[in-house]
């Protein structure tokens, strides 16, 4: 029987963002027990790093994970950032799509979903409120406030259940949050590995982590240099659509279309405005609000045809090859390491990005299967480790397209190497809100490939020199073993005393040759740094604690 239209529409409803993600938590990355917990670590750690960076503070992060029952944990996370003013606490933790990072700026966060997503997951699995502790500057004072909050899913807002003030002398934010149906793991996709990689990509950070077994890991910072503050970058005309132009026109208070274009986009000069005017016939003095869709399309067509200077790149702040090497050396303790930060490039014509790569070979740390060291690929975007969805990622695609045998390491999977790739951009093209993989944009894939091949050549040179040194050593050893026998036999035959041959041997045997090879290894033409690790002096200190509390 056919149903009435009005009857069908009786079910029509509106969903808030929180209701939507309550039904689709996998879209926030919360799927699977290990992954869900790692994503929580990711959200809280990236926020602390962003907040510290913006405030010019060297990050000190403490995390404690306590097991309360099977798949049931209490997480305590605290940082020394600028804190969150009281009025914003419920917005930060209980409102989806609310944040301070909706700008064209290089930051780890972009969407205003991370904190509220964690609170939502906690509430959905335990029904418990979360406790937030914020210490923030208010004029000359530092205020301390603690709140117990819940997320009102139907309204996408926060409910304050309890509030108290406390005295404090330093700034920072902290959260205590419970989860069920999650699990802690030491695997490559687990929370511990996430922290380890975070420290490699952020050598300026110090993280203390107390795991559920009572082990306390202290990852010391490898550098005291605070990364420079990224700046906002205006969108480049080659990267905008007609819809972007209409959006700009609707939300501006500029009186003339030309001023809007020149002030909201980069590289649009008065000269370019004239070119557009001549080609399209659009009056550039028009009020932006009167620009039609058709006109916006015509402007975009002209943007495609006109030559503009490349997008500005001063807003991008890479880690830098020295810092990457420091991070790699301190955490992976490799036999050989090298890193490279490339020049900025643009994808989709108008979004600038920088690729950074690093390689670590051999050594005592790194991924192991059984006793042998295996290859590990460490993907990062804006210094944040990407742990999941590697199959669809631009980084995986680029690394797989390289013929690694050319670089003397055979099959990539079985080689004892760690490959580090970081993509820096004001707009990393993530494939989903979970932000775990980067879209394989042609320019990005090409750039990663080029950069990696360049450092792989350095590794190849190092391996070649190492092999030559080994061969030389073997040859010298044979010589050293044989000569005394020959001398003895000759002396016997000649009925003479065995001469003192050891001094002569020293001059010609392997010692001299090995010294020579070692010198060659260190020569600048090899451009590779050999890291000799005698004692594993770990940046991460591991302790087993009784019942110490992290504050
Ligand atoms: N530890 C913190 N210290 C200070 N401010 C914070 C902290 N954590 C979050 N914030 C503030 O709360 C806002 C919301 O954080 P949230 O994690 O929800 O989203 P985001 O970081 O902006 O984006 P994304 O969802 O992509 O991570 C941030 O933009 C920031 O202004």
Topology, please?
Elements (H helix, E strand, L loop, with lengths): L4 H4 L8 H7 L9 H23 L4 E10 L2 E8 L9 H6 L19 H13 L3 E9 L2 E12 L4 E10 L5 E9 L10 H11 L4 E5 L4 E5 L22 H9 L6 H8 L5 H11 L12 H13 L15 H12 L3 E6 L3 E3 L3 E11 L6 E2 L2 E2 L2 E6 L2 E3 L7 H7 L16 E9 L16 H52 L8 H7 L1 H12 L7 E2 L9 E5 L7
Parallel strand pairs: 1-7, 14-16
Antiparallel strand pairs: 1-2, 2-6, 3-4, 3-6, 4-5, 7-8, 8-18, 9-11, 9-17, 10-11, 11-16, 12-13, 14-15
Bound molecules: adenosine-5'-triphosphate (ATP).
The site of adenosine-5'-triphosphate has 21 residues, from helix 3 and helix 5.
Catalytic activity: ATP-dependent breakage, passage and rejoining of double-stranded DNA
Enzyme class: isomerase
Subunit structure: Homodimer. Heterotetramer of two Top6A and two Top6B chains.
Account of the protein in words:
By secondary structure, this protein is α+β, with helices and mostly antiparallel strands. The chain folds into four domains: 168 residues, Heat Shock Protein 90 (2-Layer Sandwich), CATH 3.30.565; 69 residues, Orthogonal Bundle (Helicase, Ruva Protein, domain 3), CATH 1.10.8.50; 141 residues, Ribosomal Protein S5, domain 2 (2-Layer Sandwich); 56 residues. It is built from 15 helices and 18 strands. A nine-stranded mixed sheet has the order 5-4-3-6-2-1-7-8-18. Strands 9, 10, 11, 14, 15, 16 and 17 form a seven-stranded mixed sheet that branches. A hairpin with a 3-residue loop joins β10 and β11. α3 packs antiparallel against α5, α3 packs parallel to α6 and α7 packs across α10. The longest helix has 52 residues. The chain binds adenosine-5'-triphosphate. Adenosine-5'-triphosphate binds next to α3 and α5. Keywords: ATP-binding, DNA-binding, Isomerase, Nucleotide-binding, Topoisomerase. Relaxes both positive and negative superturns and exhibits a strong decatenase activity. Pfam families: HATPase_c (PF02518), Topo-VIb_trans (PF09239). Belongs to the TOP6B family. It comes from Methanosphaera cuniculi.
